[in-house]
Amino acid sequence: MAVPKNKTSHARKSSRRSTVWKINAPELTACPNCGELTAAHKACTNCGMYNGRQVVVKKDEQ
């Protein structure tokens, strides 16, 4: 059974985990219908349009 011979130092452990925070923010694009910034390949949260079609019906529009 494999057992570490020496304790892993705090600096060595932290340097191994240091790349976790380098995640990029998602790219935002303008909705062609209303101009609201939205994530790519997702329905617009403001108007509910996706790919030129109404896919989400808002409650206030009913």
Automatic annotation (TrEMBL):
<keyword id="KW-0689">Ribosomal protein</keyword>
<dbReference type="InterPro" id="IPR044957">
    <property type="entry name" value="Ribosomal_bL32_bact"/>
</dbReference>
<dbReference type="GO" id="GO:0003735">
    <property type="term" value="F:structural constituent of ribosome"/>
</dbReference>
<dbReference type="Pfam" id="PF01783">
    <property type="entry name" value="Ribosomal_L32p"/>
</dbReference>
<dbReference type="GO" id="GO:0015934">
    <property type="term" value="C:large ribosomal subunit"/>
</dbReference>
<keyword id="KW-0687">Ribonucleoprotein</keyword>
<dbReference type="InterPro" id="IPR011332">
    <property type="entry name" value="Ribosomal_zn-bd"/>
</dbReference>
<protein>
    <recommendedName>
        <fullName>Large ribosomal subunit protein bL32</fullName>
    </recommendedName>
</protein>
<dbReference type="GO" id="GO:0006412">
    <property type="term" value="P:translation"/>
</dbReference>
<dbReference type="InterPro" id="IPR002677">
    <property type="entry name" value="Ribosomal_bL32"/>
</dbReference>
<comment type="similarity">
    <text>Belongs to the bacterial ribosomal protein bL32 family.</text>
</comment>
